[in-house]
Amino acid sequence: MGTVAKKSPVAAAPTSEVPALTVVKLKPRVDPAPKVDTRVAVVEPQPEVLEQLSEATMKSGDDDEPLGGSSADALFQAGLDALRTGNVTGGIEKLQRFASENPKHTRADNALYFAGLGLMGQGSYVEASRSFQQLLTSYPAGDAVADAMLKLAECRIRLNQPKDARVLYERVVAAYPGTSAASLAESRLGSFASTAATGSP
User: Fold this and answer.
1) In sequence order, what are the residues at sequence separation of 6 or more whose Cβ sits closer than 8 angstroms to the Cβ of residue 28?
2) Please, what is the average pLDDT of the chain?
3) Which of 63, 67, 120 is CA-nearest to residue 91?
4) The model's pTM
5) pLDDT average, residue stretch 20-46
6) What is the Cβ-side half-sphere exposure of residue 38, based on CA atoms within 13 angstroms?
7) CA-CA distance, 71 to 104, in Å (whole number)?
8) Average pLDDT of span 57-64
9) Helical spans, DSSP H, in the chain
10) Measuring CA to CA, which of 33, 38, 133, 147 is 20 to 30 A from 63?
């Protein structure tokens, strides 16, 4: 008897046909793009603060290394630029961040001073006082100390603390004789004397 060869199973042909592809054209939605708030609060600093800021920034750049060498320098410059262009809140935040993150930088005291000027420009005399006081405490040998004492005294006057202001003016006269800061402090002390004589506040 012969052997019967087994046939290998053959795959069954598919019984269903592959459906034809259908092209569907999608129409773009006509919905408008969502509105994004791009407004930035711009507060124009008081003219005298703006003038002092310009003078002070020119003085601060003379003796130190040029700006732009590091991200810290870029942050400091961005803070000054923001103050100059009217973004006072943004400038203050950048300068305070710079001072906080770079306490040993040669411009840390200047950052606190300019932040204080910006706060004065906004009429925030309590916060400005804190900035100037931090400068005096942390950087007693800094180049912005005399100016910070004058500005702190001005804040004290605005906060109705004339005795504290007088003490600060006297300290400037004693510590910085012959300087423009001392001359300004002496004239302010003279106005205290004339105010006391006339009895006006």
Assistant:
1) none
2) 80
3) 120
4) 0.67
5) 66
6) 3
7) 15
8) 47
9) 47-63, 71-84, 88-101, 108-121, 125-138, 145-158, 162-175, 180-198
10) 133
CB contact at 8 A, 56 and 147 = yes
Per the structure block, which two tokens stand in for 192? Answer: 């205290």
Per-residue pLDDT averaged across 86-92, rounded? 92
- Residue ranges and CATH numbers for the domains of the chain are 47-54+66-198 (1.25.40.10)
Specify the length of the chain in residues: 201
Tell me whether residue 163 is exposed, middle or buried, using C-beta atoms within 10 angstroms of its C-beta: 0 to 12, 13 to 18, 19 or more: exposed
Which residue, chain included where needed, has tokens 């942390």? 138
Q: Is 3 left (phi over 0), alpha (psi -120 to 50) or beta?
A: beta
- CA-based Rg of the chain, rounded to a whole angstrom? 34
- Is 60 exceeded by the pLDDT of residue 77? yes
- The span from the CA of 66 to the CA of 60, in Å, is 10
Nearest to 110 by CA among 96, 123, 121, 124: 96
Q: State the residue for tokens 């019967």.
A: 4
